[in-house]
């Protein structure tokens, strides 16, 4: 008889091993999926995971890794704080959009003035926009007990409509010959989030992501607030007795993740993307949920997971070009990864014992 | 602006059509939550149901086969969720999100060949005398069979939950799984069945969008209806008839908003399109003060240690 026995403590070894096992299992199942689509499975997997790093055109793809990875890490770090405390912000996509809009809005308002102060102001505005958007579910939760999952998600759809309205209306480029979309911030030096070292993909968003990783590590391991976050997640009742104020935690976790998502949006719109347009958002806010879990809600883990997920994006693009792999296949691939991760997570918290249960 | 272009009879008739996918998904989720499980994957199951139903209907030429396939596909996807949460004891919130992300990708992959295809039309039920009634006939008695099925399902779920032993057991499992286990009920089995039912209903709801409401296939066409269905269960305080009421309310908002867009009201299209989501939030705020009717074990994993 096979039974599950709860471990007194989650196993450290398994908690490190399960993400790797999940990636391997996903490669295997992904290979089968690609084979079912009539693509050579080994070739496809190799293209996704090997080509961007060591292939012929790696010099072009490696910088892309930073460009795609930075927003994922930045958002996932914020989400992980809340997820640890059982506060579920799943509307990061919306906060990302609003951060981009407020950030770009400040930049566009100053056009065509050139000054060093503009970009820092845009950063502040981006963070503020994301923070404010996340405060809606946070305040509703603390004031009325409204479910933050549903509210934050509904606000994604609202933000998408808002984005459409902005790129067709207020922020539309007056010299854009009637095309939707704002002025291109890449052509506006004071507002351009340019590469810090040419050809590396290193922009301010990458720097911000690294700072966020360090801050979050210190917060969770060396700070009282981080301790409260972990305590609330692992033993909510004990946290109550220890004097943790749940409302403050909700405001902090949602606010921090919103601000980080807003920053990610602002760095994206002023750098790699360049302009506010209807299809500006590409689902980083949702993929970041996978990144946060794959990184075990740990800052360093998230950094690695963000890199891996960026790899699947870039590799997926290459496979799309070389092998005709549909772009949706990569989405399925990423979803599968989360499935395997959650399924294998059982091994961290439970021990599988075979044989008859002992009589106590 | 020309509000006179809005025909109230057609408005109410199309309101019922717009409400049906919501109702089907919400009734399914209501049963799942009554058993103490929170499945946030409704959106994912709906969109997979939408494409599975669409594909089956196009291939077989029969919309009814489409609905069957959609229910099967929804249930199959929910089985993944059941495996994760009931056997592997994974976090229900995370697993539900995974289901939605996976479902959105899977449906996009499955749907590539069906973009721009026209599905076979579903015949209207023609009730001999009732359909000929002057106004009521047009509003109430000239719809497709699935719409009536949704209403019948609401009644059935209500009756089963309230009057039968099976309903009592389901509620017991949702209120206190330890006590139900101690009484000898198979908590995991009952919950798995509830999850499968929820998946089938969500699949049907999705197929209703792609086969009847729109009817065509576009990527991500459920556009948050699955999430609104989740909010609807809270709105309904886990009571089937209130879910029906809520579905009609939200269906009404959607239809009125679309009609206003068509009539050319001075409000920009984007702001009108936001309204269903904003109203969902508003309703959640008003109703979330009272949580007493939520199943007590909602969202908690069950593990029989002995």
Key terms for this structure?
heterodimer; A: 360 residues; mainly alpha; ABC transporter involved in vitamin B12 uptake, BtuC; two-stranded antiparallel sheet; 15 helices; 2 strands; 70% helix; globular; B: 306 residues; 12 helices; 0% strand; transmembrane (chain A); ABC_transp_permease (chain A)
Describe the structure.
- The complex is a heterodimer of chains A (360) and B (306).
- With 360 residues, chain A is mainly α.
- Chain A has a single domain, classed as ABC transporter involved in vitamin B12 uptake, BtuC (Orthogonal Bundle), CATH 1.10.3470.
- Chain A has 15 helices and two strands.
- Chain A has a two-stranded antiparallel ribbon with strand order 1-2.
- The two termini of chain A are 17 Å apart.
- Chain B is mostly helical and 306 residues long.
- Helix content of chain B is 69%, strand content 0%.
- Chain B has helices at residues 8-34, 42-60, 63-87, 92-110, 136-140, 145-163, 165-175, 177-182, 187-213, 225-235, 240-263, 269-287.
- In chain B, α2 (42-60) runs parallel beside α4, α2 crosses α10 (225-235) and α11 (240-263) packs antiparallel against α12.
- Chain B is globular.
- The N and C termini of chain B lie far apart (68 Å).
- Classes of the chains: A mainly alpha (360), B mainly alpha (306).
- The interface between A and B is large, with 51 and 47 residues.
- Chain B: InterPro entries: ABC_transp_permease (IPR001851).
- Chain B: Its main location: membrane.
- Chain B: It is found in: Cell membrane.
Itemize the secondary structure elements and their pairings.
The complex is a heterodimer of chains A (360) and B (306).
Chain A: E1 2-6, H1 12-36, H2 41-49, H3 51-54, H4 58-84, H5 92-110, H6 118-144, H7 148-168, H8 204-222, H9 224-234, H10 236-241, H11 246-270, H12 284-294, H13 299-323, H14 327-344, H15 346-349, E2 350-354
Helix pairs in contact in A: 1-2, 1-14, 2-13, 4-8, 4-9, 4-11, 4-12, 4-13, 5-6, 5-7, 5-11, 5-12, 6-7, 6-11, 8-9, 8-11, 8-13, 12-13, 12-14, 13-14
Chain B: H1 8-34, H2 42-60, H3 63-87, H4 92-110, H5 136-140, H6 145-163, H7 165-175, H8 177-182, H9 187-213, H10 225-235, H11 240-263, H12 269-287
Helix pairs in contact in B: 1-6, 1-9, 1-10, 1-11, 2-3, 2-4, 2-9, 2-10, 3-4, 3-9, 6-7, 6-11, 10-11, 10-12, 11-12
């Amino acid at each position: 008889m096979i039974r599950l026995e709860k471990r007194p403590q989650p196993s450290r070894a398994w908690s490190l091993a399960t993400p790797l096992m999940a990636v391997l299992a996903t490669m295997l199942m992904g290979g089968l999926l690609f084979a079912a689509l009539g693509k050579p499975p080994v070739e496809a997997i190799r293209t996704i995971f090997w080509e961007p790093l060591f292939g012929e055109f790696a010099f072009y793809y490696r910088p892309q890794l930073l460009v795609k990875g930075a927003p994922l890490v930045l958002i996932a770090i914020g989400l992980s704080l809340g997820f640890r405390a059982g506060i579920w912000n799943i509307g990061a996509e919306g906060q990302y959009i609003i951060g981009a809009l407020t950030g770009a809005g400040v930049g566009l308002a100053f056009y065509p003035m050139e000054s060093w102060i503009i970009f820092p102001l845009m950063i502040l505005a981006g963070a503020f926009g994301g923070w404010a958007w996340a405060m809606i579910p946070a305040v509703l939760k603390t004031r009325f007990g409204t479910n933050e999952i549903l509210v934050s998600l509904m606000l994604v759809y609202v933000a998408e409509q808002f984005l459409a309205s902005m790129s067709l209306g207020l922020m539309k480029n007056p010299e854009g010959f009637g095309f939707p979309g704002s002025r291109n911030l890449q052509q506006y030096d004071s507002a351009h989030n340019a590469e810090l070292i040419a050809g590396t993909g290193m922009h301010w968003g990458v720097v911000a992501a690294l700072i966020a990783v360090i801050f979050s590590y210190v917060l969770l391991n060396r700070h009282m607030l981080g301790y409260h976050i972990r305590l609330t997640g692992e033993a909510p009742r004990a946290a109550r007795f220890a004097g943790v104020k749940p409302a403050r935690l909700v405001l902090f976790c949602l606010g921090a993740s919103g601000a980080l998502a807003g920053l990610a949006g602002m760095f994206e719109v002023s750098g790699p993307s360049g302009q506010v347009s209807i299809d500006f958002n590409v689902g980083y806010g949702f993929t970041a949920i996978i990144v946060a879990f794959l990184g075990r809600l740990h800052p360093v883990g998230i950094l690695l997971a963000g890199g891996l997920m960026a790899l699947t994006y870039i590799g997926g693009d290459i496979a799309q070009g070389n092998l005709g792999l549909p772009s949706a296949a990569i989405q399925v691939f990423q979803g599968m990864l989360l499935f395997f991760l959650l399924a294998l997570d059982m091994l961290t918290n439970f021990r599988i014992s075979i044989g008859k249960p002992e009589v106590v | 602006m020309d509000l006179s272009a809005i025909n109230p009879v057609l408005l109410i008739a199309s309101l019922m059509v717009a409400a049906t996918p919501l109702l089907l998904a919400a009734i399914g989720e209501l049963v799942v939550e009554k058993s103490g499980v929170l499945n946030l994957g409704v959106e994912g199951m709906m969109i997979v149901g939408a494409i599975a139903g669409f594909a089956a209907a196009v291939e077989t030429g029969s919309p009814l086969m489409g609905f069957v396939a959609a229910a099967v596909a929804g249930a199959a996807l929910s089985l993944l969720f059941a495996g994760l949460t009931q056997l592997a004891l994974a976090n229900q919130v995370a697993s539900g999100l995974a289901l939605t992300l996976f479902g959105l990708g899977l449906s996009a992959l499955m749907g590539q060949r069906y973009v721009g295809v026209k599905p076979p039309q579903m015949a209207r039920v023609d009730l001999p005398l009732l359909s000929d009634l002057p106004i009521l006939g047009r509003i109430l008695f000239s719809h497709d069979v699935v719409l009536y099925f949704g209403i019948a399902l609401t009644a059935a779920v209500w009756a089963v939950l309230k009057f039968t032993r099976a309903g009592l057991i389901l509620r017991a499992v949702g209120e206190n799984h330890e006590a139900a286990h101690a009484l000898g009920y198979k908590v995991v089995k009952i919950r798995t069945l509830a999850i499968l039912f929820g998946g089938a209903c969500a699949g049907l709801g999705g197929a209703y969008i792609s086969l009847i409401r729109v009817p065509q296939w576009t990527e991500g066409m459920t556009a948050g209806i699955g999430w609104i269905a989740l909010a609807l269960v809270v709105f309904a305080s886990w009571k089937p008839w209130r879910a029906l009421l809520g579905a009609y309310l939200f269906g009404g908002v959607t239809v009125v908003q679309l009609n206003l867009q068509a009539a050319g009201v001075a409000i920009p299209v984007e702001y009108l399109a936001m309204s269903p989501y904003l109203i969902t939030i508003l309703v959640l705020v008003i109703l979330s003060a009272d949580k007493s009717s939520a199943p007590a074990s909602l969202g908690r994993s069950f593990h029989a240690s002995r």
